Amino acid sequence: MSLPDIVWYTWGRMELFDGPKHLFWRVFIYPVFPSLQRYIGQIPWVRQYGPPGRQRWLLGSLAPGRTAEELLDHLVSQGFKNHFIAWQDDGQVASVRKLVGYRYQYHIRIFADGEVRGHYEYTPEARPFAHLKEIDQEERRSELLEFLGYYVIPRNSPLNITPSFA
Fold first, then answer.
1. Structural domain of residue 77, as residue ranges?
2. Which residue spans within 53-131 are E strands per DSSP?
3. Which of 80, 131, 153, 161 could cross-link to 96 by cystine, CB 3.0-4.6 Å?
4. Is residue 162 assigned to a domain?
């Protein structure tokens, strides 16, 4: 793949202002986000469900005999990648995302107790404030369970329920 092909592949699905936004994130936000994450998360309007807590959209639990590492390998084989620009929920051991163009992503979290949660949303790079406020976040349960395959046993959970802060 030549350099022009790589540039087109990366930037070809972006709209007019998405390219400069992407560059801004790569140069200024990605390098400092891990250090600033805990401070940003303490702003009251930013993170309304924690800590402690977990985001809504429970999908299920790891199937018996399956490990978080096996599930991660499976998800990586389907195009998911590490998502370090994401909050760390209580008990979380992994966070991965699969981009849908530049503006949207499937986001899956795996927890130490085997629980798996996920949703479909704006990427933080494309719509940072909409992402923070969970605007237009969707369950997309059937699509996410298809990605997870036999690695997860689905759990029936009420739609859009935020877990308690026990």
1. 3-154
2. 58-62, 81-82, 92-100, 104-111, 115-122
3. 80
4. no
27 Cβ contact list (under 8 Å, min separation 6) = none
Helix intervals (H) in the chain: 3-11, 18-24, 33-40, 68-77, 128-132, 141-148
Count of domains in the chain? 1
Whether residue 103 lies inside any domain: the answer is: yes
**What global pTM score does this model have?**
0.76
- Whether 159 is in a domain gets the answer no
pLDDT in tens, 41-93: 677 666 555 445 788 889 999 999 999 999 999 999 999 998 777 778 888 99
Separation CA 166–CA 41 (nearest Å): 19
